[in-house]
Design brief:
Elements: H1 2-8, H2 11-30, H3 37-48, H4 54-69, H5 73-76, H6 78-86, H7 88-98, H8 100-105, H9 109-132, H10 143-168, H11 177-199, H12 206-246, H13 259-341, H14 345-369, H15 374-377, H16 379-385, H17 387-395, E1 402-404, H18 412-432, E2 437-446, E3 449-458, H19 467-483, E4 487-491, E5 494-502, H20 505-513
Parallel strand pairs: 1-2
Antiparallel strand pairs: 2-3, 3-5, 4-5
Helix pairs in contact: 2-3, 2-4, 3-7, 3-10, 7-9, 9-10, 10-12, 10-13, 11-12, 12-13, 13-14, 13-19, 16-17, 18-19
Length: 531
């Protein structure tokens, strides 16, 4: 039993209890009933420390109460001394613990619920112990005074509670942490300057003082709009401290009968609640939006990797087919040499012509499987002089492509995706439409992205693509477009396609997916513009 007790009583826990008791006593001396900081310390400590340390917090609060109330035992009785101190921390700890699931969910409305319940319950317990346990019995407390105590506890929690949450979240990633620190510094500085200016007014200038108090709330509103819950927490803390220290010029620490303080107290409670609620809503929707964007980026990355993997397989297949074609050429040459050696020159020449024709056709089909020229000469040269260009020339319906910009600035994966998309779009119009077709493309750069804008259109501007063709084009081309952060649109007589990639990240992406392939040299980028 002694060993078990020794293991439970940790020196760090006892040190925590002592520190809590000292902080409680210090904040009690600094606060007033209308801004009761010990109520905030109680909630902040429970939020800051894990469940296993809560017993030490309970010990620390009992020690603080014992120090404050022991001299009054003979005046008010032992029952009041024990009962008035026993339930406050356990009840608040139970309230905080019951909100644990809401805390894990990531929403911050739970904090307002904890603050309101803790303020109401603690005030009720204090008033009940005063009336029922104190000897002689205390006088019944008016509803107005009870409301002042509730709001005072609530404001104390709004000051210290968010500090604990912000401290626990200090290592969580935040997109604009540096901007938050700068904006918070500016906002708090403005509030501090207004509070210093407020102290200069005489007690009779109520209108001017209230106007300045309203101005104090404006930086808090700005922080809320800019940074969500974090900004709201910082703004509410700063405004509460500033107004709490400047009510009545900061001269009186007891505002029980001070009507102006009670009005300010009510306004602050409502404003602080509204700002924290609004900031929590902003943060929730921002996290939801960023998580969706993250999922979209991950899906795009997976789709892009899949496309690159497919192209890698096509490249490897083309390499194997090329080796097979070279072996066939060698076999044909050996056969021709064998026939020539035995005097069959006519048969040898016929076989040679046949082998040349078959080799050319084989290489054209091989180029359609995977255009290896794109690795060295870029997309435009493939569109103008490769096998796909010869296939288009044979139809007699393709006008000379209008190509602008330098495709060598783009990643190999994006060039291959553009090549496949252009081929599919042209094939679709050749199959479904009549008349001449024009391919236009422009490579360029905008912001941190590089991309290509493609338009495959009918030369007859009076014609319009049918609904079926638009649906088939979207179905055939949207996969690559979405994988590369672009879009597909059918407008009047044309199919418009946009493909884009990050200017830096894409290099590593296709280099990983297609090892052994080097990117073409970079060239001066031209701005992307719609066609």
């Amino acid at each position: 039993m002694e060993k078990e007790l020794h293991l439970r009583l940790r020196p760090s826990g006892l040190l925590l209890a002592v520190a809590y008791a000292i902080c409680y006593l210090a904040l009690r001396q600094l606060s007033a009933d209308q801004w009761y900081l010990p109520a905030g310390l109680r909630v902040a400590a429970l939020l800051l420390f894990p469940l296993r340390l809560w017993p030490y917090l309970l010990v620390g609060e009992y020690a603080a109460f014992a120090y404050l109330r022991y001299p009054k035992i003979e005046m008010y009785g032992l029952a009041w001394f024990v009962g008035a101190s026993a339930l406050l921390m356990p009840i608040v700890a139970y309230i905080v613990h019951k909100h644990e699931k809401l805390r894990i969910s990531g929403r911050y409305e739970w904090f307002l619920s904890v603050a309101a319940l803790a303020a109401v319950v603690v005030t009720a317990l204090n008033l009940a112990s005063t009336y029922f346990l104190m000897t002689p019995a205390g006088e019944p407390v008016s509803w107005e005074k009870a409301l002042k105590f509730v709001i005072g506890d609530y404001l104390g929690i709004l000051i210290l509670g968010p500090l604990a949450i912000l401290w626990k979240q200090r290592r969580l990633p935040y997109a604009s942490s540096r901007k938050l620190r700068w904006d918070a510094f500016v906002g708090v500085s403005i509030i501090a300057l207004l509070s210093v200016y407020l102290v200069q007014f005489s007690s009779s200038d109520i209108l001017q003082k209230n106007s300045i108090r309203i101005l104090m709330v404006l930086p808090a509103i700005a922080l809320t709009c800019l940074h969500g819950w974090r900004g709201a927490a910082i703004g509410v803390i700063a405004v509460n401290l500033a107004i709490g220290l400047t009510v009545n010029g900061g001269e009186a620490r007891d505002y029980t009968n001070y009507a102006e303080a009670f009005i300010v107290q009510e306004i602050l409670a409502v404003a602080g609640t509204a700002l924290l609620w609004f900031g929590s809503t902003i943060s929730h929707h921002y996290r939801k939006f960023t998580s969706q964007r993250q999922v979209e980026k991950q899906a795009m990355s997976i789709a892009r990797t899949s496309i690159l993997s497919t192209e890698r397989e096509m490249r490897e297949r083309a390499i194997r087919m090329k080796i097979i074609g070279e072996d066939m050429d060698i076999s044909f040459r050996k056969a021709v040499q064998w026939l020539q050696g035995r005097g069959h020159h006519a048969a040898a020449m016929d076989m040679l012509r046949t082998s040349v024709i078959q080799s050319r056709l084989f290489r054209e089909q091989l180029s359609l499987v995977y255009p290896s020229e794109i690795e060295h000469y870029g997309l435009y040269l493939v569109l103008e002089s490769s096998a796909i260009a010869e296939v288009w020339d044979q139809t007699g319906r393709l006008a000379t492509p209008r190509l602008k910009g330098d495709p060598c600035q783009l990643g190999l994966g994006l060039q291959l995706a553009a090549y496949r998309s252009i081929s599919d779009a042209v094939a679709l119009l050749l199959e479904q439409e009549s008349g001449s077709i024009l391919v236009r493309a422009r490579c360029g750069r905008r912001g941190g992205y590089r991309g290509i804008v493609v338009s495959v259109s009918l030369l007859d501007n009076s014609r319009t693509l049918g609904e079926e063709i638009s649906e088939r084009a979207a179905e055939a081309l949207s996969g690559r477009a979405l994988a590369y952060g672009g879009s597909v649109r059918c407008r009047r007589n044309r199919i418009c396609l946009l493909l884009a990639e990050p200017a830096r990240a894409e290099r590593a992406a296709y280099a990983t997916a297609m090892p052994g392939v080097s990117a073409a040299q970079q060239a001066q980028a031209t701005p992307l513009a719609p066609m």
